[in-house]
Task: structure prediction
Amino acid sequence: MTLADYLPLALMGILAAGFVAVSLVASRLFSPNRPTPEKLAPYECGIIPETEATQRFPVKFYLVAMLFVIFDVEIVFLFAWATRWLELGWYGIAAAGLFTLFVLETLVYVWKRGALDWNVKTSGPLPA
Amino acid sequence: MDIVDVLLIGLRVVATFALLLVVTILNVWAERKVVADMQNRIGPDRAGPWGILQTVADGLKLFFKESVTPSKVERGVYLAAPFLAVVPAFLIFSVVPWGAPVEVFGRTMPLQVADLNVGLLFILAMSSMAVYAVVLAGWSSGSKYPLLGGVRATAQAISYEAAMGLAMVAVVMYSATTGDGTGTLSLAELVERQAGTFLGFIPRWNIIPQFVAFAIFLVAIVAETNRAPFDLVEAEQELVGGFHTEYSGMRFAMFFLAEYINVFSMSAIAATLFLGGWNGPTWSGILPAWISAILPVFWLLVKTYAIVFVFFWIRATLPRLRYDQLMQLGWKRLIPGALAWLMVSALFIGFRRFGLPWG
Result:
């Protein structure tokens, strides 16, 4: 496995990017371009936008990203174990199992703290 | 590496590229026909025989439409997003082997753009890259609906990517039980290890021992490609068009192209990991040699289209999930389920291989 094995992927990337560039430029040449102030305004179903689009959004999304990092790192470690695990035998299974338990504990903790609930009442009357 | 090798690489790249474009044109039409049939409609039937040229007509229409660039956009990122969507889509399929190696000019050529020894990691990396396209398109549009769509897309894609990765780990782990005793991340190698049969008549496909991993993987790829019922990213009743609201003309067509390529390549990856890839009867010696050489490609296409059909079927059947249900399914069901399944199958194989831990 050398760097030369990645050459076809580089070619594919260049071909795909070239395809996008050529179609966009060609479309530009053949399509009309008649901007008006209404057309260039942010789309809000015909209502004139009152506020800027860049507003605060729930911090929950950030929390999900943090959790993802934990699990993605775990997957990377498990990939390494899964390629050689038969040579490691019970020792490897015990180590990977213990590691998985620790990560599951993290999940249970954030679950119980309510980090995975999206504040939606699923029963009862809707909040006023 | 001499000139013939380089030419063969070029041939494979161009052939795969053309295959993906043709497949996209057919899949868009096939989806509309299948969904129409399930809903007792006729679907497109005007352009060409059975309406098969409908996608070409739609593409031409988009080509000649105005590409509006709204005044509030972050220009550089806004223009780069279609590239970020299409390039990873083509690269993901590049590591999938779509046929048995063939003899050309006295050398063996794999029917695959690149056989990476880290193929599975490459797939995970590229599907993460595809998230950037959606996020940046939503953020750079300078409009509220795309921003919400983009933020939702990030959370959804990364949640289900964890489950997808864990299902892949189970396959790598199981692949160590055949071959030289080490797990493999190369897709060509994974296909070869699924050759042969259990008990003499059941094909040795990973779906049989790893059926839970297959179920998790299938749900995860539907969510990864933002398809119904997980299409909250572009939920038109709440978010207009989602992240591509401010894109029009050919720029919108690029996002559309990327989505359909992703559906096809994710189905091909599921077929490769769990359904034996291009393995299948070739009847070499009975049938003419050229038919035996083509049959593996045919078997992969049959398996891939079986999964693509499931994509269409789910879309026609299930209503869209609510956002909290989506996150609940991802974090509270699929991820713990995948972890548990991984440990259960490790213990099961461990008992069969090493006996009792205290014995």
